[in-house]
Amino acid sequence: MLLVARLSFSIKPLVLCSSYPRISQKHFTKSCPCPLWSSSFSFCLQKLHRSPTCPSVAPFSSHCSAPSMATAPKSTPEVNPLLQDFDFPPFDAVKADHVIPEILPNKVKFMLRMGQSKPFYNAFKAIQESPEWPTLSDAQKRIVESQIKEAVLEGVSLEDDKKEHFNKIQQELAKLYQKFEENVLEATKKFGKLITDKKEIEGLPATALGLAAQTAVSKVSSGHENATAENGPWMITLDAPSYLSVMQHARNRSLRKEVYHAYVTRASSGDLDNTEIIDQILKLRLEKAKLLGYNNYAEVSMATKMATVDKAEGLLEKLRTASWDAAVQDMEDLKNFSKSQGAAEADDLNHWDLNFWSERLRESKYDINEEELRPFFSLPKVMDGLFSLAKMLFGIDIEPADGLAPIVWNSDVRFYCVKYSTGSPIAYFYFDPYSRPPEKRGGAWMDEVVARSRALLFTSFCVGLLFNP
Questions:
Q1: Cβ atoms within 10 A of the Cβ of 101, count?
Q2: DSSP class of residue 7?
Q3: Which end of the chain is more exposed for a tag (fewer CB within 10 A), N or C?
Q4: How do the residues of the chain divide into helix, strand and coil, expressed in percent and rounded to 5?
């Protein structure tokens, strides 16, 4: 349930809602020390339906994926769990149609109102122009300057008509970003190659065969409930664990080529074609840049960074120049090694050959086999080592706290508490380490679940850590 991973129940925006009453301790659940109280989240969303003066709350961030809009029901259910009072996020009850279309547009609208807030902007400008400005530390000045810059980039200085056009662009971009990621996810899920002859996947390690057999059991509608790593059948997909295993270990070059082409051409044709979406994104980004007074979107992106477009391009050229000879030599080494192994493609290595022969060369030169290293880096051992390192470096303890957050979006998700050495809690985090191709996009990310807020008396912090390797 990837959607829940995206829901960032941030408390910070609620401070901006002027009609929101001061929170007192009596509102908190006294029997539970966990800070995941989010009644205020639903308050502002409910307030939105009654009064246009209070902005809506942004429940999730724009860089993570959600379940496909194409498969989500079009009608919003009568009871939306995100609009109810709760002590813990109701992850088991949240569905795609609870967010789309009710909350997603309101999230963008609220973030625009916050970013274009004249009171905020004027307050930071007053700090910058005050007699006390020279007495502030560099870090404090950096915060103020960054807030002013971000407000300008959010359109705070635009005239009314231009601001309205800017806001329309932002709303449209949010929809396009969402649709782009959905199409990629759907295209990834759509591909599946069933293999019954083990010779076709010769070279794949035992773990990869086990994963492929497990996928065959779960993905194929019928007839393969008894698939095993040893006897198959095996299902190859475009999810990272399956894709990378084929690229690195499959001796079948035609299989590598087929899977590679499927991977790099995802969402480029048919109903899931992202071509037009990309064109629209580029067009709207340029319009946005022009409205803000920049020549292109790259300049907008660099405005909040230490680099400039010219410096970034200069660095890339320096890297290219410095690495060119070494890269050419690496290719020669691969060609010579593959030729020594009798590879027919030695003189014509292609993209789908590089990972395979790089892995073989590494094994030959350094006698390193990743499969033999796996037992030493099992998840429990890695977690124990990571927590021990954190304790040694920062003097903190990280302990399981599943009982404090019993409702999660998948049974594999764990909940941890970060504590001072004295035992008092500092923060909490959800940990979701396993690949679930049908509902999680590739990669790894972190999202805020509950933010600190002095105004709302939240002194702890909670995030979600998600992986889909």
A1: 14
A2: B
A3: C
A4: 55, 10, 35
Strand partners, 166: none
Gyration radius (Cα) of the chain, Å:
26
How does DSSP assign 267-283, residue by residue? TSSGGG--HHHHHHHHH
CA-wise closest residue to 103 among 42, 163, 50: 42
Look up the pTM and report it: 0.74
Give pLDDT tens digits for 407-431.
Answer: 888 888 899 999 998 988 888 898 9
Question: Alpha-carbon distance 11 to 449, whole Å?
Answer: 9
Cβ atoms 437, 239 nearer than 8 A: yes
| Chain length of the chain | 469
As a whole number of angstroms, the distance between CA 462 and CA 186 comes to 30
- CB-based contact 47:21 (threshold 8 Å): no
b (16+ CB within 10 A) / e for 105-130: ebbbbbbbbbbbbeebbeebeebeee
In angstroms, how far is the first alpha carbon of the chain from the final one? 16
Q: Name, in order, each residue with C-beta under 8 angstroms of 335's C-beta and a sequence gap of 6 or more.
A: 346, 347, 349
Contact 430, 465 (CB under 8 A): yes
Q: Lowest-confidence range among 24-38, 147-161, 237-251?
A: 24-38
User: Element (H or E) spanning 443, and its range?
Assistant: strand 443-450
pLDDT in tens, 68-93: 334 444 444 467 777 777 666 777 77
Strand order in the sheet with 425-432: 396-400, 414-420, 425-432, 461-468, 443-450
What are the two backbone dihedrals, phi and then psi, of residue 398, each rounded to the nearest 5 degrees?
Answer: -120, 115
pLDDT per position as a tens digit, 15-31: 333 333 333 333 333 33
Backbone angles phi, psi at 460, to 5 degrees: -110, 170
Interstrand relation of 425-432 and 461-468 (parallel, antiparallel or unpaired):
parallel
Nearest to 186 by CA among 82, 297, 71, 75: 71
